[in-house]
Amino acid sequence: MTAINYAWSALGGDPARLARLITVPREGVLPARLPVRQLARACVGACALAAAELAARRAGLGEVPGVRVDDGAVAAAFHSERLLRVDGRAPVLFAPLSRFWRTADGWVRTHANYPHHRARLLGALDLPHDAPVEMAVGRFAALSALEAEDAVRGAGGLAVALRTPAQWQAHEQAAEVALRPLVERERLDAARTRVLPPLDPATAPLLPAAGVRVLDLTRVLAGPVSTRTLALLGADVLRVDAPWLPELPDQHADTGFGKRSATLDLAVGRDTFEDLLGAADVVVTGYRPGALDRFGLSPRELVARHPGLIVAQVSAWGAYGPWGGRRGFDSLVQAATGIAVTEGSAGEPGALPAQALDHGTGYLLAAAVLRALTEQSYEGGSRLVRLALARTAHWLTAGIGPDPTEAAPSPDPTEAAPYPGPDAWLTRTDGPLGRLRHAGPAVSFTDGPTAWTRPPGPWGSDPARWL
Fold first, then answer.
1. Number of neighbouring beta carbons within 10 Å of residue 392
2. In angstroms, rounded to a whole number, what is the distance separating the alpha carbons of residues 243 and 460?
3. What strand order describes the sheet that includes 107-110?
4. Are 157 and 140 in contact, with CB atoms under 8 Å apart?
5. DSSP 184-242
6. CA-CA distance, 195 to 417, in Å (whole number)?
7. Which strands form 426-431's sheet, in the order they lie side by side?
């Protein structure tokens, strides 16, 4: 089974729809030892097909619009945070303390881009807030990799020991991950759902998510990628953050296209938040499993108060197993699952050519929401969809076989060519944050959107209400 067939099957899609999808392969895209190109193409293709399917349903079309997946556009989208320029300035991707560190017996990977994570990491190492990187080098060198992992995690920080593929496969969390489907899908009740108005097939672009209200409770990076995609497809996406947890400016600029951004303190604005929930069609969360439950925001509590809701969740490790409650990011999952060893060389850990776990999972999450909307239009019912970076990593490392299309000519021979670099898939947009150079949309279908309708604005600058 090819990667796109597997992804579409995991989403519950009709296999006959796959005939509507063509690919434009390009050599040299996303080079890696692991099949990153196949994963990226499959995730974007499945999302585009889910969008086209919903567009056909709402516009009353007799046939699903054709889907075109160009490896060049996919590669640019998977590098979006790296390709972004704000008034010519390159983004800050990783803070100095977000890196691999040598330990007494191996390596550990830390993530400290956010100030509160940096403070916890330094606290775990018993270092002052202004400690130079060199002081951390000595602290890590005195610990084993597992000791460092436990010490940082115990302080509320983020660190994982580098593991080989065999070491990860022997881990209890890996066994739990492997038991789950790539996309967890569940119908929670038989509630009636809001009927979305039909689309006019004569009006372009076709926006399959037009009129859908998406409450975005996500942070870097998979969740924001998914909601950015839903915004492209016409959804009214409102991202809500706690006022004391600002998003990193470059991350916000990269993933904020098409969305609005508000802040809300649940301690004093709970009524406003419930009003948002009451009118929402979709809630997307990207916090660690259980983190929002104390606010009454578990999936079952949400649909009990607001029947017909679609709840979409993404996490690093999954909502199960001994690591089910842990925080995590793409780089940490790569280190823990053996990917960094596979992609490394000369005894040093490496990395995938893009944050492919984040981006791939983000497109699959958007696809799962779109498919849930299509299924609701026939059957109703509140829905829960869940994805995990670790499960996407399992698919990448153990589930993607050779793709026969890799050796076949492009279905569009006029465009089959080596990858010339990302410039052909970059665009420029002026907005409140300045002049942005950024990747264009990778999700593409006949008569579908080709750009976002609004640029990102300043974080937290919009009112907490629906349009």
1. 29
2. 8
3. 100-102, 107-110, 159-161
4. no
5. EEEE------PPPPPP-TTSSS--TTTT-EEEEE--TTHHHHHHHHHHHTT-EEEEEE-
6. 44
7. 85-86, 434-439, 426-431
First to last CA, the chain: 43
What does pLDDT average to over the chain?
Answer: 95
Of 76, 108, 84, 111, the closest CA to residue 96 belongs to 111
Measuring CA to CA, how many Å separate 258 from each of 3, 154, 361, 432, 455?
29, 38, 19, 13, 6
Q: In this model, does residue 410 exceed pLDDT 50? A: no
For residue 246, give the DSSP letter. Answer: P
List the beta strands (DSSP E) in 337-411.
383-388
Burial 316-337 (b: 16+ CB within 10 A, else e): bbbbbbebbebbbbbbbbbbbb
Asked if residue 443 lies in contact with residue 48, where contact means CB atoms within 8 angstroms, the answer is yes
Give me the numbers of helices (H) and strands (E) for the chain, helices first please. 17, 15
Residue with token string 């038991």: 179
Give bridge partners of residue 429 from the DSSP assignment. 436
* Geometric angle at alpha carbon 176, from 167 and 292, rounded to 5°: 115
CA distance 227 to 436: 19
Under 8 Å CB-to-CB from 362, ≥6 apart: which residues?
221, 222, 223, 224, 225, 226, 228, 229, 314
Give residue-wise pLDDT tens across range 260-304: 999 999 989 999 999 999 999 999 999 999 999 988 999 999 999
What whole-number distance in Å separates Cα of residue 201 and Cα of residue 56? 9
Is the pLDDT at 411 greater than 60? The verdict is no
φ, ψ of residue 86 in degrees (nearest 5): -115, 105
CA distance 288 to 315: 6
Cβ 42 vs Cβ 405: under 8 Å: no
